[in-house]
Prior knowledge:
The chain has about 375 residues and is of the alpha/beta class. About 45% of the residues lie in helices and about 15% in strands. It has 15 helices and 13 strands. Strands 3-2-1-4-5-6-7 form a seven-stranded parallel beta sheet, with helices on both faces. Helix 4 (about 90-105) packs across helix 5 (about 125-140), helix 7 crosses helix 10 (about 260-265) and helix 8 packs across helix 13 (about 320-330). The protein is elongated, with a radius of gyration of 21 Å.
Amino acid sequence: MRVLQIISSLKMGGAQKLQETLAGAARGRPIELTVLSLQADTGSAILAALLAKGQRVQHLPGKRLLEVGRFQKLVRFLRQEKFDVIQSHLTYANILAAAAGRLSGIPVVGTLHNVKIEAKHYHPLREGLLETLALRFGARAVVAVGHQVADIYRPRLRGQKLVVIPNAVAPIPPLPAAERLALRRSLTGSTTRPLVLAVGRLSEQKGFADLLEAFAMLHTTQPEAYLAIAGAGELQGALTARLEQLGLTGHASLLGGRNDVPQLLRASDVFASASLWEGLPVAVLEAMAAGLPIVATQVGEVPLTVVEGTGLLTPPAQPGQLAAALQSVLSDSTKREAMGRAALAHVERHHSPATWLDQHLALYRDVTHRSGPVVSQPDIS
């Protein structure tokens, strides 16, 4: 089966990380993958990882969503390649893939990764197109990455086929002891300081300002603890200033974008997520796959993922409760290690890439065999 994955960009993020997981899971399976990004993706770590796996990647950048020239190129590409099915990810890709797939006669599966869009990125016309064109009229089916995502969108889909396929996570390789100690020393200046790691875009959604507030509270009772935040984004300057204002210089750091997140996870003691909203965060799944206990906010699919015994959950936007949860986990090494083992066992049982791929393949077979609307293929050149 020839499958095209269309994604808005390959810049670091959960939807993008899943492309790497898919490339690994598809090896030796009856699927020929192509990834098409709607951006140039210069310097993307995800792009580099995909190419290292031998994944075929194409780029079709444009200056705006509704760009006629790019759309024409996309339709020509689809007709030439004759893919069996297209799966799209993120808003721009969902919209363009739905329209281009209809014109090309190729069934499209849209994908919903989140429950909310940040206010500064929200555009009523674009979101209207996403709901009516991509989800209701252009796609044969829609994948929601979690039950909370599905519940948010189901009323808007009005009978569209909606399938919940929870995100998967690839195993996180072990880190040799010497490398682990060296990485901890490079981050904290010591091999023994308790290390809390957070990973994600530096954006409003991820709640890093709340995490810094919580860590400042924690610092009064756990002065040796160290917080490392891996990720890049528009809030870099504001978060750096806040870190300094809170007196956390030397106790917390913003690492910027990193290509060694698996190693960072293996070198850490606790993973923290302070998100204000989520779908099913891949960063949390990766932390669990690295055997880390989780301290996270009760948003999106997180309460169904960080189940009892794998970590502690707190309400969003409550730094005091987040600090108390971090204190509880850091102060009890026996509980911390038990939580880490339980987290690893949970993702191995419920978020296997092989099972995840099987679910997608079943859906692809369904939409390719299910009759859809007859669409003419006009000349768009």
